[in-house]
Design goal:
The complex is a heterodimer of chains A (310) and B (530). In chain A, 45% of the residues lie in helices and 16% in strands. Chain A contains ten helices and nine strands. Chain A has a five-stranded antiparallel β-sheet, with no helix packed on it. The relative contact order of chain A is 0.08. Chain A is of the alpha+beta class. Chain A has two domains: 183 residues, no CATH class; 103 residues, no CATH class. In chain A, helix 2 runs parallel beside helix 4. In chain B, strands 4-7-10-3-11 form a five-stranded parallel β-sheet. Chain B is globular. Chain B contains 20 helices and eleven strands. Chain B is an alpha/beta fold. The longest helix of chain B has 26 residues. Chain B folds into three domains: 203 residues, P-loop containing nucleotide triphosphate hydrolases (Rossmann fold, 3-Layer(aba) Sandwich), CATH 3.40.50.300; 142 residues, Helicase, Ruva Protein, domain 3, CATH 1.10.8; 68 residues, no CATH class. The chains are: A alpha+beta (310), B alpha/beta (530). The interface between A and B is medium-sized, with 42 and 28 residues.
Chain lengths: 310, 530
């Protein structure tokens, strides 16, 4: 063990820690044990070794939270081979750098960060998120806004509005991240001064048997300024911008949507985005993009109004 | 190691999201920092205080998820008609509820806790009756040790002193009069949750002392009185049919508001038992502190339950249901004495009376299915539990299904089936003789169907006449009084000519007679005033 304090802590608290472990265990016991002991050795121990200068009470609080989080991470596959490197790097590098000045807030900050990461779709967005995180390492006060902004930019478009508000609240953060003028992000297909515009169309959905979400051909509806997608008995709200696209199941008590008319005239310049034999069913023109559904496809297409002729 | 034990975790998400909420579909940004890693402080504006009904639901879900393995959802709620799946030769339907449904074995004790009433657990040994009662004690804010020690275990040698306390030995020797004898009252009497295990093993004399505490909330010994605080009561018995060591006195039985049956263990959940054995964990020791209710919270919860509205339309259905059972046409000569209680007190056998029946359809008449009628106490219990159920579901008004679901548990030991009734001779109804919950629920549904068939939800003349009287007699003129008397007499005539004499007709006739008396007395007074 790199941290003597942590070694003693494990011995002192062996009974409740073991009990928590055994109650959280699921799946193959040997694999679970291997993954979790790897986390304790490679993640938790280095973290507490780097924070050795903290008073014991703060170390205990963080160790307890991190131990519990570790069990959750094993259950959620964060220590499976393809995710392990990112998770371990988080504990070895990012967390000690970030949490070191804030011993009192550390358990809360750790949980907030892990919860936010748990919403990201897959390991790559998580990895990108942490790379940017390393560049800003926010104070406890700025953590919530930073989480919002980075989560949105890492593929959670449902947080877009809250993230834009956070951008306006935190000019220092915007400057650190080199995002330029926040007002430009009012256009949902603006990626920032470096990558500029997202101009390619995006497709969402797909039939259930092809691993998609729709049990039927999707239909477009509008309700209270939102775009809804209906397929069979299920409904979603469409979130799409340059940083991510998502169909979020919408609640039953959501206002009833109005169907977008079918057989409306589709602008000729859009036809280049689909195959010759595709038959557009609905074409909803929004301020910054078009959303198209098809008679013969189980997907909806979002075409940004970016570039020549659009 | 606070927060480390998975048994101690409470779901942060609302247990019944639509409960008392507006249909605000806006996105909740706080969701970003909520997730599998637990609660982590809040973003600005996130509410932290938990409403008591939400806390009650959290307690329910904690118990079903961690403490008592009861994968039975027999208290069913539906938003849309559920699709039945038929099983076996008997084509028994299994319904998949379309709304949040509950396990009666946990729900009823919890409602008892919230409304501070009295609950009896019945079922074979080792089915979790005592464990459930213990959990309710923990919800009341007591430690497991305290609850275990305060639990009264019934046994054949249990004396009144064992139950209530002992006189001070020195006072017994030196006292000149009874009032000088100080009593060392047992500490359980002061608890807000009282548990009596195996109450049907308590000797009859001690049962009487228990009756005083349960019924009147005080204990008496040597002319000394000890007032007890309002409490939720839990009693357990292996058998509700007198199979204990002693027959339970009727009055004590009637004090019990609900009876809950422990359902059998489903061996598919053996893995959960295995974890408990291997880890040496008793979930009762792990109840999160956040789920414990203080004395003031219990009081507030009870007040809130009483404030839940029982809509008049539902009250009418309940009145109609309750009217069916007490009536017995040949039990008495005078109209008022035509009740099952009259013949019971006189010791006249039921079958003798049944032989005299020749007018009414004994298969359709719900009153013929029971041996007795409903007591006032049972109706009060039913209303309280229907309100508690509505409260638990986050509503401000009782719904019809709240009554349908609570009724069988309240009437379980109060309304007894007549096994000789033609209804039970039908092959499809034979199983209802042993399935009391199913029978009582069916009985209420039949009653509601008849209520609607008679169109009482649209037009109820007797209720309208009674409502007029309830407005008061102040300012009612002699002419108006005569007019109303005529209306009552006409209504009585219609009732007599258009109907067979049944429980409902009998109660309506009695109500009209009551109204007639009130108006005629008033008329006499007006006349005497000149």
């Amino acid at each position: 063990m790199r941290s003597d304090w942590f070694a003693h802590y494990l011995i002192r608290q062996a009974e409740p820690l073991n009990q928590a472990y055994r109650l959280a265990r699921q799946g193959d016991p040997a694999r679970f044990a291997e993954a979790f002991s790897g986390f304790v050795r490679e993640g938790l121990d280095p973290l507490l070794a780097r924070l050795d200068h903290w008073p014991a009470e703060y170390k205990s609080a963080l160790a307890e939270t991190a131990y519990h989080s570790g069990l959750t991470m094993v259950r959620h596959g964060w220590l499976a081979p393809e995710h392990q490197a990112v998770t371990i790097h988080l504990f070895q590098q990012y967390l000690p750098d970030w949490l070191s000045p804030y011993p009192e807030d550390a358990p809360r900050l750790l949980t907030q960060l892990l919860n936010a990461l748990s919403h990201l779709p897959g390991v790559h967005p998580r990895s990108r998120f942490l790379d940017i995180w390393q560049a800003c390492l926010p104070t406890p006060e700025a953590t919530a806004d930073t989480l919002l902004l980075l989560s949105w930019m890492s593929g959670l478009p449902q947080f877009r509005e809250a993230a834009l508000a956070a951008m306006h609240r935190c000019p220092d953060l915007v400057a650190t991240l080199g995002l330029g003028d926040p007002a430009l992000f009012d256009h949902p297909w603006w990626l920032g001064p470096q990558r500029q515009w997202h101009s390619c169309p995006v497709e969402l959905g797909g039939s259930v048997w092809l691993g998609g979400e729709f049990t039927n051909r999707p239909q477009l509806l509008t309700a209270a300024g939102h775009t809804l997608v209906q397929a069979g008995g299920d409904g979603w709200q469409l979130h799409a911008d340059a940083f991510g696209q998502l169909l979020r199941p919408h609640r039953h008590d959501h206002p009833v949507g109005v169907a977008v008319p079918e057989r409306a005239q589709v602008p000729a310049r859009l036809t280049e985005y689909w195959r010759e034999f595709d038959q557009p069913r609905q074409c909803l023109e929004r301020r910054h993009d078009w959303v198209v559904s098809f008679h013969n496809r189980y997907a909806v297409m979002v075409i940004p109004k970016v570039g020549d002729g659009l | 190691m606070k927060g480390l034990n998975p048994f101690s975790r409470i779901s942060a998400s609302p247990t019944r999201p639509s409960a008392r909420k507006t249909t605000d579909a806006t996105f909740d940004v706080a969701a970003l920092v909520s997730g599998p890693f637990g609660a982590a402080g809040e973003l600005a504006g996130t509410p932290s205080a938990v409403a008591l009904d939400e806390k009650l639901r959290q307690a329910y879900f904690w118990i079903v998820n961690h403490a008592v393995i009861s994968p039975h959802y027999d208290v069913e709620y539906n938003l849309a008609a559920p699709q039945p799946i038929q099983f076996g030769d008997s084509q028994t339907p299994l319904y998949l509820p379309t709304d949040q449904s509950y396990s009666s074995f946990i729900l009823l004790p919890l409602l008892t806790f919230a409304a501070r009433r009295k609950c009896l657990f019945i079922g074979g040994p080792g089915r979790g009756k005592t464990a459930s009662a213990l959990l309710m004690g923990l919800l009341g804010g007591y430690s497991p040790k305290t609850v275990r020690r305060a639990m009264q275990h019934g046994h054949p040698q249990m004396t009144v002193a064992d139950l209530l306390g002992n006189p001070m030995p020195m006072d017994l020797m030196q006292a000149d009069q009874e009032s000088d004898i100080r009593i060392s009252w047992r500490s359980w009497l002061d608890m807000r949750v009282k548990i009596v295990d195996e109450y049907n093993r308590i000797p009859t004399r001690t049962q009487s002392a228990l009756l005083t505490v349960m019924g009147d909330n005080y204990a008496e010994m040597f002319n000394q009185i000890h007032e007890c605080p309002p409490a939720a009561w839990y009693l357990t018995a292996n058998d509700d049919q007198g199979g204990g060591t002693y027959q339970v006195i009727e009055a004590l039985k009637d004090r019990i508001d609900v009876v809950v049956q422990a359902l059998p263990f489903n061996p598919r959940f053996l893995d959960e038992l295995l974890v408990r054995i291997e880890e040496g964990v008793d979930p009762a020791d792990c109840l999160p502190q956040a789920l414990q209710f203080s004395e003031s919270e219990m009081e507030e919860m009870e007040r809130a339950i009483r404030a839940i509205v029982l809509p008049p339309a539902l009250r009418q259905r309940l009145e109609f249901f309750a009217s069916q059972f007490e009536f017995s046409e040949y039990s008495g000569q005078q109209f008022e004495y035509k009740s099952k209680d009259t013949s019971r007190l006189a010791g006249v056998p039921r079958h003798q009376l049944a032989m005299m029946e020749n007018g009414r359809d004994r298969l359709a008449d719900l009153g013929c299915q029971t041996r007795n009628g409903l007591s006032v106490r049972s109706l009060m219990s039913l209303i309280v539990y229907a309100k508690a159920m509505a409260y638990f579901r986050g509503n401000t008004e009782v719904e019809l299904n709240d009554i349908t679901q609570m009724l069988p548990f309240v009437l379980h030991s109060r309304l007894f089936a007549d096994a000789d009734a033609p209804f039970f001779q039908q092959p499809e109804n034979a199983a209802l003789l042993s399935d009391k919950i199913g029978w009582l629920r069916h009985l209420f549904q039949l009653s509601c169907r008849e209520f609607e068939r008679q169109g009482r939800h649209r037009n109820d003349e007797v209720a309208a006449l009674k409502a007029k009287l309830d407005e008061g007699l102040d300012g009612v003129s002699l002419r108006e009084c005569r007019k109303r008397l005529e209306q009552i007499e006409r209504a009585l005539q219609r009732l007599a000519t258009g109907n067979k004499l049944s429980g409902v007709v009998h109660d309506d006739a009695m109500t009209l007679k009551y109204l007639h008396q009130r108006y005629s007395n008033y008329q006499r007074w007006l006349t005497s005033q000149g």
